[in-house]
Amino acid sequence: MDKRIRIILLVIAILPGLVLRGVLAPYTTGSDIPQFAGFTDTFLRHGLCFYMYSDGSRALEEDWPYGWPYVYGPGLILLLAPLRLLAPTPVKHYWKGSTYYVYAPMDWIIASKSLFILFDTLSAIITYIIALYMTRSYKRSLLALIIYYYNPMTIYISSIYGMFDQVALAPLLLGSYLYLKYGLNNKYGYTGLFLTGLSIAIKQTMLYPLLIFIIHILAKEGGWIRRVKGLTLIVIGASILFIPFFTACPQSLQVFIKAMGSVSKPGYTYPVVYSFNGLSSLATYINGCCGKDTLFMIEYWYIPAVTLLALVLLGYLYRRDLPLYMAYAYIVYTATYWRVNHQYLVPTTASAIIILLLERRDSVRILSSILLILIALWPLMFPVSWWAHAHIEKPNRELIEFMDMFSLMIFDDLYYLLYSLTLTTTQILLILHGVGRDAISTLNSLGRYLERIFEETGFWRRKY
Question: Which of 8, 105, 321, 399 would you label with 65, given CA atoms 20 to 30 Å apart?
């Protein structure tokens, strides 16, 4: 296929989705968009001492709409700062009687969402490039882009609610692609390693796939010099944005750690409609309806997380398929972490697409397809038009009516509990079925290796 035709087809595939995002973006916003304005204003006032305020203890004096802490890397705030200079209108927030109102200005909604939509589009294009590199099929690559870009969840997160997980996803995808294609043979491969590390400096949710990437460097690269060089580039990417902040204000590191701790302690995940971990949703639902103490169901989330991540690692050691196992590793995160928000499912969408493309077994592809359908279902269940008036001072009624046409208008928490349980179960089944055989092969190989070692050393013949 001619290169110009491929580019034209790519533009044709993207354009309707981009237009749809552009129509939805100015008249909708979730609660994080006005909070991001507060974060960014604090950064513009205090510069590199920003993290001194990250725990939310000074939210009132900093004029934040909410007392939520800033628990992300510096990447987001650095990207939002110049946009805030272009869109400086203050957020309105006030009490009227017993009701608290928060209204985001349109210029800030457009400015911040332009960033999220840009990286959403870049993530779709990079998914296309990775698919093309791995499959050599233009049709399958274009299909991968369409599945990602037109999934209702990716549209919802970037252009309706407004969140930035795709901003962290894009450098992780691009970095892994550059490394796969160029290795450590030139500047492009080095850039790839730096970008994978940089994804952590934007959002720490990319940690699980990055661990697989690090194991890949240690297992594949020949010689300790190349391994150290690769790991060093990843560490530089992960830390380079943090260093100026914590060097300028060393005490802010302690404040940031406190902020991280405040949101990482397991607890009930109210409201159930926004909880995407099945076990946490179940514990929360039982606690809410029956008053039972079910926190024990949530507190030990790390046990299945470590177990499944270990299986993914064992599977990788046998198959050595980096993009595939990075995808499985991220799904471990959304399958096991005690609090899973809907924005975390954007990288899960990209991961499921990679598994769908690279796995040969029909049963694994079916599970991956079911996962993609489930992720797409939630924005159609939930009345997302809520975000067209919750923080919009002058709602666009025509847009609200348009959005409601595509909503099932489900309000009952029980349906969202069943949805969450199904979503988590599907992810766990996908991981177990996808990596289980390779993990067992690794263990068998290890057993044979140890048996040979014991035979050669005469270990079995020793008498004690």
Answer: 399
pLDDT of residue 459: 58
Phi and psi at 213, nearest 5°, equal -60, -45
The pLDDT tens digits of the residues spanning 84-100 come to 999 999 999 999 999 99
Task: Locate 119 and state its tokens.
Answer: 């990286």
Buried b (16+ CB within 10 A) or exposed e, 388-420: bbbbbeeebeebbeebeeeeeebeebeebbebb
Whether this prediction's pTM lies above 0.70 is answered by yes
The identity of residue 281, as a single letter, is S
Taking the CA atoms of the chain, what radius of gyration do you get in angstroms? 23
Task: Identify the pLDDT of residue 447.
Answer: 85
CB distance 213 to 237 below 8 Å: no
User: 418: pLDDT confidence band, cut at 50, 70 and 90?
Assistant: very high
- C-alpha distances (whole Å) from 2 to each of 9, 57, 126 are 11, 58, 20
Contact call for residues 208 and 198 (beta carbons, < 8 A): no
Neighbours of 20 (CB within 10 A): 14
Pairing of β 99-103 and β 92-96: antiparallel
